[in-house]
């Protein structure tokens, strides 16, 4: 059982007459059989709570600086028409009572709290997004993370790792951007994919006729879930760990990269699709930034002359984080250069930065 939280705000040009406004609203609450309880706001305007039938609970506040807020909580399954009538009546009455003093009215759709299927996820820069999620199709806790695949009517199935939206079936622009946005020639090349358990990069790369793709993904449960529920993204490439031109290693990428560097094994392209918060680090790494530096250094070591390293950055609004990452590129064991582009990833609902890095 979820709770629906409705909000109605009136931003005023000047503080309202509290007594007259409250008297004007009393008939509405009486009709709704809601019991009023006035609270001491310690000189910060008027504050009252109302309790009504069907478990309804409301807060009316008239702030001393000229803002009127009304919050209404109802249980899921409450009579929607009755709730709308209450909100409509309040809005109409407040418009009449505050006529000439209203700067802005804002009424938001109900926030659903505590539902079985979560539909709210923050963007990377802290804004709240509501998705049209109607079903949870997969959920597992692996040794590394919580894995969810949720269905969105707009974006298709969405992979959520530890509460972060990773990739949806709509997000081909993400995959294309992290592979070089169609500017690279993969035919006959050797490719290393770090992460990528959703299979999107592997699926698109196989189409380009490379010589060999090695993909290193630590979490087999991610592969299992995406194989079953993200087939619009991965096609059939996750059905087997080996194919005609690819191999999937279910391992931690750090020791694999170290082994490749020791063996002198190199690649034309390295694509870093690891999660934003690292899943696993070796004991010597003590922070996310150190982990990123280690992955970069190791990846550059296994990159052939003329090869390229692709990775996601972050939300375009996180300028400090992006700047820190670019400073990190100047502190690697060898000199590199880079370019970046901004791409709108559908399910992220924000612009995302992608980097191309190569040895100088």
UniProtKB/TrEMBL annotation:
One of the Pfam families matching this protein, by short name: SpmSyn_N
Keywords (A to Z) from UniProt: Acetylation, Phosphoprotein, Polyamine biosynthesis, Transferase
EC number: 2.5.1.22
GO biological process: spermine biosynthetic process
Domain of life of the organism encoding this protein: Eukaryota
Biological or metabolic pathway of the protein: Amine and polyamine biosynthesis; spermine biosynthesis; spermine from spermidine: step 1/1
Catalyzed reactions: S-adenosyl 3-(methylsulfanyl)propylamine + spermidine = spermine + S-methyl-5'-thioadenosine + H(+)
Domain PABS: start-end pairs: 119-359
Keyword Phosphoprotein: yes
Entry's Gene Ontology molecular function annotations: spermine synthase activity
Entry annotated with the keyword Lipid metabolism: no
Family membership noted in the UniProt record: Belongs to the spermidine/spermine synthase family.
Subunit structure: Homodimer. Dimerization is mediated through the N-terminal domain and seems to be required for activity as deletion of the N-terminal domain causes complete loss of activity.
Protein name, as recorded: Spermine synthase
Organism listed in the record: Sinocyclocheilus grahami
Classification of source organism: Eukaryota, Metazoa, Chordata, Craniata, Vertebrata
